[in-house]
Amino acid sequence: MGRVVFDISMSLDGYMTAAGQTADEPLGPGGQRLNEWAFGTDEQNQDYLASQVAGLGAVITGRTTYDTSLPWWGADGPSGPARRPVFVLTHSAPQDPPTGGVYTFVVDGIESALSQAQAAAGDQAVCIMGGANIGQQFLAAGLVEEISVHLVPVLFGAGTRMFDHLGPDHLQLEALGAVATPAAIHTRFGVPPRQ
């Protein structure tokens, strides 16, 4: 079974969205800055992204991320032409998912989503991406083996903090590596199994 990775782009001051989110700007005004590294022309960032997609078996995300990202993802999902399966945690499936889409809607919790994603991924990685709430749930449940943070050189000052609400206990991580580019520092941390 492949590793379970929580993957997020984050501002230097710890926000994964800017303040003032709206339907038109789901990451808040200026929040799209967090994803520019993935869509720019910098060869180092493009190589990094391609290597991550090559090792990707499946994606887990939440309904809000699905709803706000679908206009960019389309039927192929966040992995684009690679068309990796996406498991969307939700209370109810949408009425009109894209025809031929890679999406499966999971209404019975994070463990079920993870089980389905791992079965689909085989030996490749399962990537949890999207909102803070989903990441916090998986981390609190001890279901994450690696945290991948794309640290973007911007200070938002306010927004949605990524690592709030994880409880009072410290979680010692293992530094696995970093790749520095002008648009982001791509960091990876191992998460020890819960005792």
Write the layout of secondary structure elements.
Elements: E1 4-11, E2 15-18, H1 36-39, H2 43-54, E3 56-62, H3 63-73, E4 86-89, E5 103-106, H4 110-121, E6 125-129, H5 132-140, E7 146-152, E8 159-161, E9 174-180, E10 185-190
Parallel strand pairs: 1-6, 1-7, 3-4, 3-6, 4-5
Antiparallel strand pairs: 2-8, 7-10, 9-10
GO molecular function, one term: 5-amino-6-(5-phosphoribosylamino)uracil reductase activity
GO biological process, one term: riboflavin biosynthetic process
Pfam families: RibD_C
Give a verbal description of the structure.
- The two termini are 21 Å apart.
- This protein has helices at residues 36-39, 43-54, 63-73, 110-121, 132-140; strands at 4-11, 15-18, 56-62, 86-89, 103-106, 125-129, 146-152, 159-161, 174-180, 185-190.
- It has an eight-stranded mixed sheet, sandwiched between helices. A two-stranded antiparallel ribbon has the order 2-8.
- It has one domain: Dihydrofolate Reductase, subunit A.
- With 195 residues, it is an alpha/beta fold.
- The mean pLDDT is 89.
- The longest helix has 12 residues, at 43-54.
- It is globular, with a radius of gyration of 16 Å.
- It comes from Microlunatus phosphovorus (strain ATCC 700054 / DSM 10555 / JCM 9379 / NBRC 101784 / NCIMB 13414 / VKM Ac-1990 / NM-1).
- Pfam families: RibD_C.
- Residues 4-181 form the Bacterial bifunctional deaminase-reductase C-terminal domain.
- One of its GO terms (biological process) is riboflavin biosynthetic process.
